[in-house]
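Worked example 2:
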Amino acid sequence: MQGSIDGVELGFTAQLGPGTSTLSFNGQVSNIQVGNISLAPVTLNLVASPSTFSITLGATLSLGPGEVNLGLLELGGSFSGTITVSLGTAGVSASVSGSASASLGVSEWCNVQDVAISPCGGLTDNVGAVSFNVPTTTVSVTSSGLGLSYDGHNFTLPW
């Protein structure tokens, strides 16, 4: 089934196998937007049978660009990447990958009788900016223990 609600595309398919007692569901929402946060597309996959169960939620996430003014300092940044959360009989895991940027600015100071008073409403000087990639990072909880995978390196804290 496919459709649209307020311009947001929706679609899903479901299969039920009477001979195998298996349920399979795949759904997708084209875009979820809240302020500077965007998830597009969002996918949901479910498989259930007497011997297995899994749910996987995936999305492309965009945060920002945004900034916050802390008096003298102005911090800014953005993130764009993918997130995946899986839950099943083997355990639960969450992963993220993408790219991020951050910036730091300093507001102009006004001097009154040789005392610096800030801010005075002037321009913000950009002190620095950095951009970096976020390699695939996964946190998982399984019957074996707590796992962390970062850029191809795996660590497990056994139970």
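Residues 2-158 form one domain. The chain has no helices and 13 strands.
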